[in-house]
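Predict the structure of Ammonium transporter.
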Amino acid sequence: MTIVQALPGNWLDTGDNAWQLTAATFVGIMSIPGLALLYGGAVKKKWAVNSAFMVFYAFSAVLMVWVLWAYNMSFGKPWFQVPGGLGAWIGHPCPTTSAYNMEKEAIIPSAAAAMPALGYGQATMVYFQFVFAAITPIILLGAILGRVSFKAWMIFVPLWTTFIYSVGAYSLWGGGWLGSMGVVDYSGGYVIHLASAFSGFTAAAVIGPRMPRDRENFQPNNLLITMAGAGLLWLGWSGFNGGDPFTANADAGVGVLNTHTATAAALLTWVALDVMAYGKPSILGAVNGMITGLVAITPAAGYVNGTGAIILGVVAATLPWMTWNWLGKTRLMRKVDDVLGVIHTHGVAALVGGIGTGVLADPKMIEWYGTNNDAVSITGWWYGNFHQVILQLYGAAFIIVFNVVGTFILLKLIGLFVSLRFDDETLLIGDDAIHGEEAYAIYADGQKIPVMGD
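Done. Here is the predicted structure for Ammonium transporter.
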């Protein structure tokens, strides 16, 4: 259940508070400008503004619903119960305390045990959890770029955050039934990446593909901008996994180091596979490899040792590379237009990380919480506990099924009121028709290059 405690005396730990706010800001930078730049550079020029703009919209929309009700639905008082007495699905949207409460308390999401209070106010925790919620639909967006209606996106993001994201977050992190069973997700491999991948793939199927000409030729308009966004994503992940012990302790350092180790291993693996298969290293391939490593280590960062992090990185690049380059070219997979391959880089990689945690979790890697150094350790199959693999499979199955079914229903309902995709004329023109703006206005299509003296 959610625990609220007050620290006696001098309750504020300025170091913990500073790190938690910094870590949250790192994660926020992953979305804006990180994924805004990555998406804006990776798409065709006519979609650059729209792709980046939808990132900024989602970030703002999620914050509004988060402070008003979605935080409470993700981490608040239990509301709907799972049949059979397994626990709660979701928290009550009505707050028991204000999201802006500045008293001597912090709400600690925990399904494992009663946790001690933290040395900062609840506002810090609300902000930290918000940036995780915000990046999830933004990752989903990568599957449906180049055709999803902006109006539909405006409606979809707050509803999806309310009814889809909150259920996964509460079930695993907020004291809900999956966490109570013993399913673990250190920093969002299931709650964020698996959810966004399968929701994105479902949305791509429901909305339909891009125009044939765009699908056949969708060259990035600026690879250097894409790399800049990818770099912000990589470094920002320090806050993603380093912030989840909720304190500036040794476990935060382990999470950060494991994150970068796994990511480097994955990037190198993807590049090596590209060279062996195609004879050339690819920038986009390297970015995809980087993402698979980041995703796979996310559910495992504080539970595996350094060797486990490297293993996860290598496997997390290899399997998505295979599904992208082999399975992704089959007729069945080609029917769904997943623009940036989110199902591979986030979906498959999240399964590698989540199930891999069940295999590689080292009981000596102890996750410390709070001011009293209360600890949680997980034992994986490699260390004698196969049951953790079963639990991780349960968690993955629930997140996949719930997101596929929930996203399908949500989009069908939205489609009753607004079109889910732009009309053909708008799809042909892109940014100028949608926003009246272009990413690179100088010497744009149809403009004359000025002659000296004009």
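The beta strands are 3-6, 81-82, 87-88, 105-108, 367-369, 374-376.
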